[in-house]
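fyi for ur records
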Amino acid sequence: MEGTSRTLPYTIRFVGLLGSHSLGINPKFMDTAVALGRELLRRKIKLAYGGGSVGLQGAVASTVFTNGGLVRAFIVLPGGVDTMEGLFTLISWASEGLHNRRIGLLNIDGYFNNLLKFLDDAVRQNFMASSQRKLFISSFSVDELLDKLEFAKAFPGPGVSYDEFVNPGRLDLELHL
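which gave:
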């Protein structure tokens, strides 16, 4: 796991994918989608998605398929109304207690910045529980997003944060009685 000073066991076996059926105009979207497919394959994480063979979703799936991976299972890539509908369905299901899984937003070129601000404001205005907001994990890089999702799976309760885990020098290891 590049970029981390400590390693985690690979605890995620399946990931669901939400993403656009379009490639968008920013070439970083396609490049990052292909990188996500390669990293899922490297980590032996199986993929479930809507079955599309085009756009960003198709780029991830075809990368996993052409390199020997199995597609079965849902990370959120930039997308339009259909992608947001799927994302907000996941949020709604979480609020109804139907799942408590983390939702990883691959924030390519800051695509989800405004959405994250909206969610933070919904918590501040008491329209969304902070526990629901904590289901969202975002990163600008594939490796870090998957690391954060692995961390959340390995350490689901309160305690040490991902940043403290990967930067142990910042931890206060003194015993305070």
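The chain has seven helices and four strands. thats all i got for now
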